[in-house]
Structure formats: structure tokens, C-alpha cells
Amino acid sequence: METGWWSNYSNISVHHCTWPGVRCSSAGSVIEIDLSGHGLNGSITPQIGALSKLKCLNLSSNNLRGELPSSLGNLAQMAVLDVSYNEILSIPLEIEKMENLVSLNLTRNLIVHLPSAIGLLTNLTHLIMNSNPLRSIIPPQIWNLKKLMTLHLGNCQLYVSIPPNIGKLKSLVNLNLSNNMLVGPIPSSVNNLTNLASLDLYGNQLNGFIPQEIGRLTNLVTLDLSSNMLLGLLHFAPETFIGNKDLCGSIQGFRPCPSSPNVIFILFRRYRAKALKSDPSPTKNGDLFYIWNFDGKIAFEDIIKATEDFDIKYCIGTGGYGSVYRAILPSGKKYDTRTLSSSTDFVSTIVACS
């Protein structure tokens, strides 16, 4: 950081409040520095700790290396710290002194350890650490962050299981633990995360039954459980559909759906190769997980049998979004089933065509 910024201005008389990326208070104190994407390299100078009034520091998308300086502990008024997309190696223990820190973004660095001092940042609402080689369990100090609304630990090489303590973070709105090596079941304590709007557990090795508590999270908008080894149906409480005037179905208070077209959803999942070892029977077009059927009139076994496990001879068309298969049930009812590429996880639709 001592190249490309301070050195360019330190020997000239222009007031520092006019420098690019610098914002000052009316008293002339530096309160914000935004030098994201400025091609800075080297390490962050310890002199940054002299800016005692600094509230926002954004050094993201540069080539900064090494440790964050311990002098950051002097920045007691700091609210936002973003050093994402660099090559930072570690976080100093002195970070615990940044008691007003609200947002900490460390995405895509080389951090291998989260110090216990993080747990003392009681005002922290956003902790974003995707793509750091933590290679550990989910850091337990996180459970002390009661105000946390965003927790992103995707692609951090986390292992073991998701602990029940996740339920302590009752303010969580966005939780991303995707692309790790987490195993075991999803803890039922997710029921405590009543503010949760987005839950991303994609690409782990989670197993067991999906806790029905997830279906009771009425604020949940985005849910990704794909590329795991989970089992079971997922029922959402009727109140999760309230306020959608165009929905229909058998839920109390909804108008009946028209007889045609009748749309139901299938959730498919491809197991990893090692998961398939437990079931030697091959499948032709991916593994069926279950049908999410709102009126209960059709079971997935009927579709599988009618198409002989989505045999190619039942394919009536293909396109950029996958293939369409026609199933004729014993009742004479025809269903067109659209599936996406069998190499991915997807949600598919079935439409009753007669």
C-alpha cells in the first residue's frame, strides 16, 4: 500500500481531503477511504491506525498481501472494513477493539484461521468470508455474534457437521455454507432462524432427512440444498404462501386450481459418485428425489414407470433447457415432463396435457 497511494501524495501540498477515494468530515478528519480496484500492492501500512476517525475502509480487489496490521485496533470508530479479493493471510487479535464494526468482508483471501477475537465484535451484522482456506470446523466464536444478519462461509473447506449452535444466530437473514465438506444432518435448530430469507447449503455431504422446521421459515425466499445426500419431503407451512393472490391449490383459503394445465414440481438430484456406491442400480437420466405435489393426485412412481425411468423413447423434444418426456398413466392421463441436464441439480415441471 506504500506504493500507488501515500507515496504519490505525501510530498505535495494538496490537502488530503481532495485525494481520490478519500472523504473527510467537516473538521478535516479522514472518515472514509475507498481505494478498491486501484492496483495497490505490498502490505497495508501500520500508519493506517493513525486515522482514528476512520469509519469505512475499502481496499478490495487489489494485490495486498501479508497480515492485516495490528494498528487496526486503534480504529475504534470503524464500521465497515472490506479487504476482499486480496492475498491477506491473517487477522490480528487487536480486531476485538473495533467494537463498532458492523460489516467485515474478507472474501477470497488466504486466511486459514479466524481468531477468537471475532466473537467480541458484538455489533457485527455482516461477516462475509467466502473462499478462504479455513480447513476447520465452523469457527465457534461466530455463535457469539447475536446481531449477525449475513454469514457467508462458502468454499472455505469447512468440515464435520453444522452444529446446533447455528440456532443461536436468530437475526440471520442470509446464510451461505455452500461448497464445503460438511457432513451429517441439518440441525433442527434452524427453526430458530425465523428471519432467514436465504439458505444455501449447496455442494456439501449433508445426509439424513431434511428437517421439517425449514418449511416453517415463513420469510425464506431462496433455498438451495442441492448436491448433498439428503432425504425426505419438505413441507412448507400454508402461511409461507400468503399474499400471493394468483396461487391456487388445496391449501385452505386458496381457490381451486383449474384442471388443465396442472403444474407440479419435481426436485431432482444427482448423487456424487461415491454416494451411488450404496445403490448399485443404475439410472438413465439422473436420480429422482421427490415430487412436490400440491394436490396429491400423482406420485413420482407413476411418472417413473410410465417413462421407464425417462427412457429416450419417451422423449418428445429437446432444447437449450433440457428434454421433454411424455408419460401416459394407466388412467389415460398424459403428462409432459421437462427436465434439465442430468449433470446438474434442478427443479423440473410436469404439466398435465390431457
From TrEMBL:
<dbReference type="InterPro" id="IPR011009">
    <property type="entry name" value="Kinase-like_dom_sf"/>
</dbReference>
<dbReference type="GO" id="GO:0006952">
    <property type="term" value="P:defense response"/>
</dbReference>
<keyword id="KW-0675">Receptor</keyword>
<dbReference type="GO" id="GO:0005524">
    <property type="term" value="F:ATP binding"/>
</dbReference>
<keyword id="KW-0547">Nucleotide-binding</keyword>
<keyword id="KW-1133">Transmembrane helix</keyword>
<keyword id="KW-0677">Repeat</keyword>
<dbReference type="GO" id="GO:0051707">
    <property type="term" value="P:response to other organism"/>
</dbReference>
<keyword id="KW-0812">Transmembrane</keyword>
<dbReference type="Pfam" id="PF13855">
    <property type="entry name" value="LRR_8"/>
</dbReference>
<dbReference type="InterPro" id="IPR051716">
    <property type="entry name" value="Plant_RL_S/T_kinase"/>
</dbReference>
<dbReference type="Pfam" id="PF00560">
    <property type="entry name" value="LRR_1"/>
</dbReference>
<dbReference type="InterPro" id="IPR001611">
    <property type="entry name" value="Leu-rich_rpt"/>
</dbReference>
<dbReference type="GO" id="GO:0009791">
    <property type="term" value="P:post-embryonic development"/>
</dbReference>
<keyword id="KW-0732">Signal</keyword>
<dbReference type="GO" id="GO:0016020">
    <property type="term" value="C:membrane"/>
</dbReference>
<keyword id="KW-0472">Membrane</keyword>
<protein>
    <recommendedName>
        <fullName>Leucine-rich repeat-containing N-terminal plant-type domain-containing protein</fullName>
    </recommendedName>
</protein>
<keyword id="KW-0325">Glycoprotein</keyword>
<dbReference type="InterPro" id="IPR032675">
    <property type="entry name" value="LRR_dom_sf"/>
</dbReference>
<keyword id="KW-0067">ATP-binding</keyword>
<keyword id="KW-0433">Leucine-rich repeat</keyword>
<dbReference type="InterPro" id="IPR003591">
    <property type="entry name" value="Leu-rich_rpt_typical-subtyp"/>
</dbReference>
